Amino acid sequence: MKVEDIKQICVIGAGNMGHQIAVCGALAGYKVSCTDISQDMLNKAEAFANTYLPERVAKGKLRQEQVDKALANLSFTKNLEEAAGAADFVIEAAVEKIGIKRKLFADLDRITPPHAILATNSSFIVSSQVADATKRPDKVCNMHFFNPALVMKLVEVVQGAHTSVETAQVTMDLTAKLGKTGILLKKEIYGFLVNRILGALNSEALYLADMGIATTEEIDLAVTNALGHPMGPFRLMDFTGIDLAYYIGMERYQNTGDATDKPSPLLVEKFTKGEYGVKAKKGFYLYE
Ligand code: CAA
């Protein structure tokens, strides 16, 4: 398959990442069907597209015809068969639970046309952990976007030992068609590049807060003002989800067995209280 053969993209999951990946695809001219087990999430995703896209016209960033075309390209359905049945390329952005992802990949293998590439947007799960749930491991890879996906330019593509060269190339080519910069990793590594680097920053920030060396606000102030990051680590964890930071930490700890990889007491406290950040209206900061 070549990137030119991709006409229909299916995005699984209408959450933090999925709803914006779907809009990216529609803006790039692809028919995109977005699916989720929650009708509420689908309604929110559709409402986002219907608000965000016209706002881009009002801001002078897009033309009305581009928005009309993108909206016509987008569809939202709870029905997985309907969403994925004619897909040439699937981007799975469901919850970060391996059991759910394996079941989804097995279902997608059954539902999608045999030529379809099945990519996971997981933030840390390498695709070899889901590829063997399908009969087409050569067509399975990681395609990892960053939050907010409509803004952040990078996509990490990871070619596992099971992934064919063709699949990796088509995924890199699709990344470019979506207007993103791709980095191709030819070796699977937990957390890929960016989340490993970010994880190191977050662990140190959490350690300093846990030790009472500085408050979370002071650490954010230090990182934004001294390093020029647009958000400090605590504001960013609120934005991307404290639950996600916790799952990433737990997965890493389970992989390495290294006690220093264990999620920090402050992170565990926030996770246990359900203070997941922006989506829960409370995390390290409060949100209205
Ligand atoms: N969705 C879509 N677009 C958004 C947005 C959102 N949630 N938030 C901001 N934008 C857009 C705005 O429309 C605006 O676009 P234009 O300039 O083209 O008009 C632009 O971003 C700037 O917006 P603002 O001026 O309102 O806000 P800002 O300058 O404070 O930027 C931000 C907001 C882009 C989120 C910026 O704070 C930022 O880059 N933060 C860091 C984000 C980051 O590090 N992401 C990676 C996280 S790690 C990750 O994602 C890994 C993972 O696996 C989950």
Automatic annotation (TrEMBL):
Residues 8-186 form the 3-hydroxyacyl-CoA dehydrogenase NAD binding domain. InterPro entries: 3-OHacyl-CoA_DH, 3-OHacyl-CoA_DH_NAD-bd, 3HC_DH_C, 6-PGluconate_DH-like_C_sf, 6PGD_dom2, NAD(P)-bd_dom_sf. NAD(+) binds at G13, A14, G15, N16, M17, G18, D36, E96, K101, S123, N147, K279. Transmembrane segments: none annotated. The record marks H144 as: Important for catalytic activity. GO terms for molecular function: NAD+ binding; oxidoreductase activity, acting on the CH-OH group of donors, NAD or NADP as acceptor. Pathway: Lipid metabolism; butanoate metabolism. It comes from the Bacteria. Signal peptide: none annotated. Residues 191-287 form the 3-hydroxyacyl-CoA dehydrogenase C-terminal domain. Keywords: NAD, Oxidoreductase. It holds the Pfam family 3HCDH_N. One of its GO terms (biological process) is fatty acid metabolic process. Belongs to the 3-hydroxyacyl-CoA dehydrogenase family. This is 3-hydroxybutyryl-CoA dehydrogenase. It comes from Desulfosporosinus fructosivorans.
